[in-house]
Records
---
Amino acid sequence: MGYIKEPEGVDFIIKSDPLTDEDRKRISKFISAYKEKSEQGKAKKTSQRKKKDGTQHVI
């Protein structure tokens, strides 16, 4: 991957305002709801391991 030169008049550095306490709480609430939703939709995976005699054992 090569070096990308900034075109004249364009600044790739972004400075954002600090988050307020309300914003932090809303983001935290969104993330926890997203994680909870994604965990509910997942089915438990079962792994299969071969025994020494060649048969499979479901864990």
Note: The chain is about 35% helix and 10% strand.
---
Amino acid sequence: MPAIVLIGAQWGDEGKGKATDLLGGRIDWVVRYQGGSNAGHTVILPNGEKFALRLLPSGILSPGVRNVIGNGVVVEPGVLLAELAGLEERGIDTSRLVVSADAHLVMPYHVAIDKVTERYLGARKIGTTGKGIGPAYQDKVARIGVRVADLLDEKLLYEKVEAALAFKNQVLTKIYNRKGLDPKQVVDELLGQAERFGHRIANTKLLLNEALERGEWLLLEGSQGTLLDVDHGTYPYVTSSNPTAGYAATGAGIGPTKIRTVLGILKAYTTRVGSGPFPTELNDEMGDFLRETGGERGTVTGRERRCGWFDAPVARYATRVNGVTDFFLTKLDVLTGLKTIPVAVGYTVDGKRVDELPTTQSEFSVAEPVYEELPGWSEDISEVKEFADLPATARAYVERLEELAGAQISCVGVGPRQDQTIVRHDVLR
């Protein structure tokens, strides 16, 4: 069987965990292929039980599914262990999780530098979560990173940490006037953590390719969203990795020809966390309504999300750069009760109409949305199971978004629980 890629089609927080849940009973493997503990998936089971995942693949909640933290992820051992312990305390079986030996580690000095740098930038800050993700990816690209496999070789681990701190401590002490870190203390802490998850370290590239050869389904799960991609997002207000579908094969260690379906997750409106341009943002009572009704607070940080109307150029852009074959539209129920619902179909930039994302940062920062007004609905749709049973105006809203986005909307979320999903087309067809 081929692989399916699950990606956020906006600025993240679209509800990717809900999509993983929907597919969980038919998927053999769920692979997290990029990002780190700066991401978050909130999953609500049919019984109302809520789980907030940060580093672990959301398939960890699906019985029988094997879960992989891929080589494209940066792993903070303390977060990994804490998250595993939290799930085990709630009766979740975590024995089917493995971690790529080639994944890079988020080190204590990465976290320290991330936090102090953001504070130093002041008003020019990017809006990082302060989890050390950016500095970890910097070291990976600079070829001075520490990988998960290094935890199995104490001598090599110490050499790498000592070499890294020879420079990092200079930055911390001489530039930012902070206390440096002791290499031995860092290594001892890592080795202690490794004793608790070393049995999970594996050659995941081999495992996944063998699974594909056996005809098993792989779900490749990204964190954040398309507009936070370091290459394709609203740079520099982006994450430090590539959430887009093109990186899924690299971050999991499989060939791109194994991918058949790209499932983009779209929220029925738009949100983002952190700094950066957001053309449809609502700084008024309607923005407050979307935030409160939709429960728009970050899974990891708890920060309130910025809210705005659906942005069709963003969705169309995501379709193109990811090769989206299907969309999962989430939180349609949040819009219930609105008489009309604006949808941005384009922008004006310096007085000129444009229908696609502006090319430059400066153009995007001044883009003003051009809205099309669609009629709303007042009926409760939270328990609707069939698309035909939605109010006519709700169906029309979904169909218009589908037309504007350029790919079929195969699933529609009408509530936060796993079972509050309407399936229009089978994405594993």
Note: The longest helix spans residues 154-175.
---
Amino acid sequence: MSVLSTSSVSLRKVFNRTASSFNPAVLGGTTNKQLQDSSADMVICINKRSVTNAMASKVLSYKPIAQYKQHTLHYVLKTIGYVPAPFLEGFVSYLQGPTSKQYLHANAHLRLILAVNAKLKTPLQLAELGGLRQRFAADAVAMQTPKVWRQYRANKLLAIKPIIKRSAAAVSWQDKLIANADEDRDTGCDQATMKVRCYQAGPKASHRSNADEIVMLFMHGGGFCIGDIDTHHEFCHAICAKTGWAVVSVDYRLAPEHPAPTALRDCIAAYAWLAEHCHTLGARPTRIVLAGDSAGGCLASLLAQQIAAPTASSWQDLGLSGQSTYQLLQHLPQPMAQMPLYPVTDIETDYPSWALYGEGLLLDHADIAVFDVAYLQHSSLTREHPLISPMTSDNRQVCPTYIVAAELDVLRDQAFAYAEQLKGHGVAVETHTVLGAPHGFLHFMSVHQGLEQQTDYIIEQFACFVYQVLSMQKAQAA
């Protein structure tokens, strides 16, 4: 969830009050000279007037994002990271944010982001989901680096002047409309359509080519209620650029307008479409990998489970439409691997992380309660149903799995429990925990240096994991 997704007070007002009231002298006796010495390579004059005015001018330039291709928030949050740590610590203290002792592995820059979020956040209400969806979409895109949105302009320039650097056009993407899982009763159409975004890497995108013909199907997070293919564009772009794989991102339908299991059925339909058309992306249907974050991680895991061992009784609960999905599942090729990132895996059980990190972070108890109601209140399925939580059904035949958990996440221990369940079934599993990271950290991958490095590491390690799986499959086939 975005740092600003549930704000009722503007970011500029919070920083205006802080910048005008904060006194650097409170930094534990730290002098201005010591602050300057701590970052000698930065041309910053550390004193009350210049620093607070400089910070205020950066932050006060933020305005609500009206159009997607504006990225002011990216520059604001990234610039704050260059301020010396002692000054950031003072800001965190002033905002009564978490200390380094509370969150040992989160640096001052990240704790300041969390502190600002805590000041801006208001309790989420079910009736406000529409507004939240719009704010989240705007803020998530505003935090992304502009270079991942330069496809069309870069291509036009290349046509005029071929000697222009090609790195900006290393990844191209195209949005396509494909059939949803069922008919659209609202429009009267025989078949509804949803959008998927297809990414392909050029020769400059990576040191690797996609010689192994791999494609990733990605499901975005957002509590099944918010998010879209734009909010997760940066991460999909990065995967394509760094691995050379094709990537297809699914714009599944959202709750409460479309309750469970609509999102899952849309993702199954997207998988079926990809299995049939992946050759147009230079990939094979037997080399599809799955990924998703948060609710998207849940959908990826449910998809992996149901393709491996579809449960007839579960789909019978949905009547004729469920039976058609069950028949479709039986004819789909198996995914090669999956990567759920800080996923929802067990909606019923309260794990230790539920109490440890359920308040004061980007995702809290109140948010989860609203998302759960929106997703399930108009559904014919119960909370314990196998099509709701991956851990409540048969995972014995699930594909090899690389699980990513966030340390400061109310859902952290769900990821660990899911990993242990898969290991108990003999499934190949690797787990990586991002220390000091909150739920939803992918949205900060280009504004926070540490999280950028961690995101790069996750992509590299999952690629290695997939290539190991592929090597084993080749050896078994030989």
Note: DSSP finds 17 helices and eight strands in the chain.
---
Amino acid sequence: MNSQSEKWTSKVGFIMAAAGSAIGIGAIWKLPYIAGTNGGGAFFLLFIMFTLLIGLPLLLAEFVIGRSTQKTAVEAYEVLAPKSGWKWIGRLGVFTSFMILCFYSVVGGWTLVYLFRSLMGQFVGAGTDYSKLFDQTIADPTASLIGQFAFILITILVVAKGVQKGIETVSKFLLPGLFLLFVVLIIRSLTLQDAMKGVEFFLRPDFSKLTSEGILFALGQSFFAISVGISIMVTYSSYLDRKESLSRSAFTVVGLNLLVSLLAGLAIFPAIFSAGLEPTAGPGLLFIALPSVFEHIPFGGLFLTAFLALFAFATLTSSFSLLENIVASLPMRDGHAKRKRWSWMIGGASFALGVPAALSFGVLDHITIAGKNIFDFMDFTACNVLMPIGALLISIFVAHRLERSLLIDQLNTGSPAGGKWFTLWIFLLKYVVPVAIIIVFLNAFGIVG
């Protein structure tokens, strides 16, 4: 089974899968807690700017690479630049996808553990110390590893079924439910006491709290949140019909991601301030703040269970894209059986290598690398080092290596107006994207600033 034999059945299926890849831990879990520790509104404003000026052009660049070749991550670069070293962009993307999957599955596992406890009615209750409960959960090796294993298992089962029957089917029907429940949660969150303090923190920029590290995080988050820099969208767009508009698809995916990021902030920060919690709570922000909100809602346990189920799905759709990017890059000459075999092998390896990350808040919390525990080190390396490097190389490749006629043709296909964006798009890829990445890197490592 090669890349040409896999296809999305519709544009909606592609948009839902691509948006599902973007909408997950990046938008719902990671952005709120990173924003909370980096100035709130200032970070969010910077994140929006980076997403539109850097993330969006890069997303469109990956779409062009994948759709024009109808090949997945590694093969696409080989087709466009044969007998050159550019194929290493795809290989770097596959490696980074694997590293992310290793620690991403840990957070996905926490979500499944919380979902199970909520289903058992063990979660929401007056007087519960949710911060202590979260610390106990992530420090518990049994709960962490069982949750991580279940998360990886679901990911394997879906990806093994293929693009249409697996990834597209679940993405197209369940993702809209997440938006509906977000609306319910926000309405309740905004009616809590002192909720407006949270809204002000999230939407009013305070640049005095923004550090060079925060700027790097905002840049990294703009890649992580829409899955660019690791060629996932090269793989996903290789399954897209040649008649679809790439520019419209890119704007839709980015728009949905920014909307969910906004909704996540409006749901979580008012609840944090209402509950008297600190917005700098870190990775546990979602797992601590959300139960506090649902505790005050009639049938809160039911709402929490439903939200956790849909949040688990949102994290899984991102996980599908990570595993798919790796599996699709491997030989598929003997068809579906090979896809199944690779899915199990790569999924199993990601679980095994993710175990230290899962245990880094408990039995392995004494082990640090460059001052970070194992989980945080993997997260920082993948999202703040490897993804920006991949994004920089992709921008150079598309802006300087590919033929202008190919780029214009891809932008015009499916939408004659798409070509109107060409000049601005190429300008951003040539100058803004590389310069932004390099300056932020130099600033973060203390060379400039």
Note: The first strand starts at residue 368 and ends at 369.
